[in-house]
Amino acid sequence: MARRLTVFECTACEFQSPKWLGRCPECGAWSTLEESSPDRTKPAPPGSSRPIPFPEIPETGVARLSTGLPELDRVLGSGLVPGAAILLGGEPGIGKSTILLQAASILASRDNSVLYVTGEESATQLRLRGDRLKVTEKTLLVLEETDVDRITATAKETSPTLLIVDSIQAVSCSDVASVPGSVAQVRESAQRLVRLAKSTNMPVVLVGHVTKEGGLAGPRALEHVVDTVVQFEGDRHHAHRILRTLKNRFGPSDEIGVFKMTSTGLQEVPNPSEVFLAERPENVPGSSVHAAIEGTRPILVEIQALVGEPMQGNPRRTALGIDSQRLALILAVLQRRAGLTLSDRDVFVNVAGGLTLTEPASDLAVAAAVASSFHRKPIPQDWALIGELGLAGELRSVSRLDARIKEAERLGFKRVLIPERAQHLTDALDRLFKGA
Ligand code: TYD
Ligand code: MG
């Protein structure tokens, strides 16, 4: 007789293990492994699915619904798709409730109804925020509720154009044993809300808090369940906020939308380059400008570097807005290929404005900012830099060069240093600092 196989599956990330473990090695969550039996010979459940010939698949051609905030539409992939399940993540206080209430109010003012479920704050607290945002719409319905089945029942009854659940961590299922806020609860609640979205075609936005480690709580579980994951980034202490698409079944991912928090809500920033360069110091060593591509759009950003004597002990390397491994590589190349003795220095690099750059196209601008601080020589104000750095010190070409150059020109940069014009890092640095 075949031995019955038992598997333990992580309720957070679906990782499977033959034995029980206290901590999931895949997503790092604690106590999430539960026994499940992989009985693959079960009879098919009754149902009516059948294969259809390709041309008979109905075309979608769906009309997307604008949220009334073009920067939000952009990250969603030109608006809300019917039946889409969207997760909006971000640290507490970053502005998730604010942006959703603003979008809800605009939608409601355009002959739609919106159901805003508040599970964390009372309706009165929501009202305070809404008064600040000048919300007056009668078709914006507010429901104070945390039970997922009562939420779905109300949503079916009122059938709004958009359902917002703020937040998914506050919602729970009465028939799931674990405590509210636990991974199992959050996942099951999200799944029920996603099913509602799919069965009614109602787009659903779930708010999810991001944990200190930067992951969406209920780790990767929620990211699998929804169609789109949008994350609010930025520094709570500064006005600018960046909305970034981490995953999108209905549009490009990595798209960003830029906002500014004001006393009357979030304001869109249609020209982010201007904002990211607005506070750039003039003729100061350690500052360079890079033409980045974020999503579909070129954006100019200032990169700042500071090279200093270590205060104590080992030199420190701090990277904000770029990957620290990437910074280590750039510093090694600067040392070995361009002769800058950095090994005994502190190096700090920061992307101004809170943007996070992920492309290696910013290497040259990072290297130049570090070299500029090292030599205490400013980079001329009218240069913008683009290029990836190879380990031999060679500059490598990058994608969408034309769009980047155009954006630099639009913002008044007269000279753009690109890999085609300087083959090696030393050529590039000579041109920047010797005016060659
Ligand atoms: P909120 O939307 O409550 O954040 P989240 O839902 O992500 O936790 O935003 C809270 C912050 O935004 C809070 O510090 C107050 C500030 N704020 C403004 O500056 N202006 C405004 O008009 C509003 C509504 C909030
Ligand atoms: Mg909130």
Automatic annotation (TrEMBL):
Q: Which residues bind ATP?
A: 90-97
Keywords annotated in UniProt: ATP-binding, DNA damage, DNA repair, DNA-binding, Hydrolase, Metal-binding, Nucleotide-binding, Stress response, Zinc, Zinc-finger
Please give the superkingdom of this protein's source. Bacteria
Extent of motif RadA KNRFG motif: 247-251
Which Pfam families does this chain map to? AAA_25 (PF13481), ChlI (PF13541), Zn_ribbon_LapB (PF18073)
Q: Where is the composition biased (Pro residues)?
A: 43-56
An example of a GO molecular function for this protein is: ATP-dependent DNA damage sensor activity
Q: Where is the region Lon-protease-like?
A: 346-436
The reply on keyword Signal is: no
A single GO BP annotation from the record? recombinational repair
The terms describing its cellular component in GO are:
cytosol
**Locate the RecA family profile domain: which residues?**
61-210
Chain residue ranges for the region called Disordered: 32-56
Domain writeup: The middle region has homology to RecA with ATPase motifs including the RadA KNRFG motif, while the C-terminus is homologous to Lon protease.
Matches recorded under PANTHER family:
DNA REPAIR PROTEIN RADA, DNA REPAIR PROTEIN RADA-LIKE PROTEIN
- Describe the function of this protein: DNA-dependent ATPase involved in processing of recombination intermediates, plays a role in repairing DNA breaks. Stimulates the branch migration of RecA-mediated strand transfer reactions, allowing the 3' invading strand to extend heteroduplex DNA faster. Binds ssDNA in the presence of ADP but not other nucleotides, has ATPase activity that is stimulated by ssDNA and various branched DNA structures, but inhibited by SSB. Does not have RecA's homology-searching function. Plays a role in repairing double-strand DNA breaks, probably involving stabilizing or processing branched DNA or blocked replication forks.
The record's listing under HAMAP family reads: RadA_bact
- Indicate what this protein is called per its UniProt record: DNA repair protein RadA
Source organism: Candidatus Polarisedimenticola svalbardensis
- Phylogenetic classification of the source organism: Bacteria, Pseudomonadati, Acidobacteriota, Candidatus Polarisedimenticolia, Candidatus Polarisedimenticolales
